[in-house]
Structure formats: structure tokens, C-alpha cells
Amino acid sequence: MVNVRCATCKYLRRRCPSDCIFSPYFPSNNPQRFESVHRIYGASNVAKMLEQLPSSLRPQAAETLCYEAESRIQDPVYGCAAIIFQLQQQLHNTECELAKTRAEIAIIRSNGHGQESDIYSADEY
Amino acid sequence: MGGTSPCASCKLLRRRCAKDCIFAPYFPSDDPHKFAIVHKVFGASNVSKMLQELPIHQRGDAVSSLVYEANARVRDPVYGCVGAISFLQNQVSNLQMQLAVAQAEILCIQMQQEPVAATLPASQMLDHHQYQDHDQKSLLLSNSHDFNNIPQYFSSFGSSSNVIQDPLKRESLWT
Q1: Is there a domain that residue A37 lies in?
Q2: Does a structural domain hold residue A1?
Q3: Mean pLDDT rounded to a whole number for chain B
Q4: A108 contacts in B (CB within 8 Å)?
Q5: Is A64 found in the same domain as A98?
Q6: Are residues B62 and A76, on separate chains, in Cβ contact within 8 Å?
Q7: What is the per-residue pLDDT across B17-26, written as a single tens digit (0 to 9) for each?
Q8: Which of B78, B102, B168 comes nearest A64 by C-beta?
Q9: For the whole prediction, is pTM greater than 0.80?
């Protein structure tokens, strides 16, 4: 049975050992995934980051590293910080809108009570 | 007469800081931590390549965002910035739901305060209002969900550490 090298070891042109830290997260059928991560972080930094984590958390770490690397490639200036900034803005806008809407509700309710008394007083004239 | 102090990058890398050092404008010697953290996550040579590929006027912002991402990754080695994105997406969704409810409430109040039409029988009037109410509510709900163009990739992701409960109020995006 021939061992298939993972995308990392193929890219780095080396033998892929059975305990290769990259192989579960960078399969050979998706070379682009590793290339993105390598371009932004470098293979040795990725290996260090993964090694510091328990194996149960490594899939999520690899996934988020890929996501951030792709974001950085698409937006070399802001990376995924741009997304965070947009979300912060949206959060702020929605908070303002909600506060405004709640204030409107309070006004409508108080006007509703006011209008009833106006109607009665108008009838008196 | 003395030489200029090497920038934080060249100090850490223990090399001579050239006049045209690409790091010097963004990593002054009085803030060694800033470069240290970026070097730890991205590596100096990767940062140098990234900066070289950018026009000079964009490099400052690029460094700020790299520092931000590096800090996020060090604080949360599993989710990094994605943890913050996921958190914010949830916050926005919750607020949008609350907004939709509040807007529907306004409609309800306005419906209740509308003068009763004398010509319509009571049963028809009720159906008419309910129909209008439903239409307007669904219209409002669809409009109020100003869903961003950001894909909800990581809606189920949380933070691996308890530190990032409210990651972004603690620091501004740009230093």
C-alpha cells in the first residue's frame, strides 16, 4: 500500500511521515489550502501552532488559520480585520436603530393616552 | 554624533537596521512587543514580503491589522480572529431580531390606534387588519434583516478560551 503524501509534504517535497502533523488537515486533494496558509504564516509557524494544541482542537485551529489566510490573500491590507470592522459598524447601527425604535414605541404609547384625553376635552367645546 | 537606534524588528532579529529597513516606520524600538507578536504568528520574512507587495500608503494599515490578528491568535490559539467574528455575528443577529420585534410592536400599536371604519362589518374588519398586519410585519422583518454580505461560515464556532467573551471592546482595531 503506497502512502499518499499530504499537501504540505508534497509542496515541501519531503517524505510524509505517518505522524505528520499536517496530514489530517491538509489532504493531498486540496493543495491550494496549504499554499494559502504557507504563504501567510509559513509551514513552520503553522506546525508550531498546531503542536501547541491538543489534537482535539487542531481541526478547528487549522480551519481558522485557513480562513484567515484566505482573507488576507483576498484583502492584503486588512485581512479578516475588515470583516470585524464591518460587523462592529453593523452592530453599532443596529443598536442605534433599536434604541430609536424603542423610543418611538414609548412616544406612541404616551401619545395614545394623550389623544384619548384630547378627544374628551375637544368634545367639551 | 550617534547612530539611529535600530527598529524593534532589527533589534529582535539582531541585525543592522538599514536606512531603508521596511519594518522601521511601523515597528519603532520603543514597542518591542508589537513586532515580537507579529513575528511569532506570521514570521518576519512573511511580514516583509506582505509589506513589499503593498504601496507605501497602505502599509501602516496592513501592519495594524496584522498586529490585531496576531494578538487575537495569541489570545485564542484555536479560533484567533474567527472567534471574534463569530461572536459579533451572533450579537448582530440577536439585535436584528430584537429590532424586528420592536418594529412589529410599533405596527401593532398603530393598528390598535387606527380609527375604526364604520362601513365594514366587525368580522371583515378584523380579517382585513390581520391580513395587512401580517403583510406589513413580514415586509418589515425581511427589510429589517439587513444581513451583511459576510458569509456565516463559523456560526457554530465559539471561543476556545474564557478570555474572549467580549474581545473587541477591550481594544480598538487600530493602535
Answers
A1: yes
A2: no
A3: 76
A4: 106, 109-110, 113
A5: no
A6: yes
A7: 999 999 999 9
A8: B78
A9: no
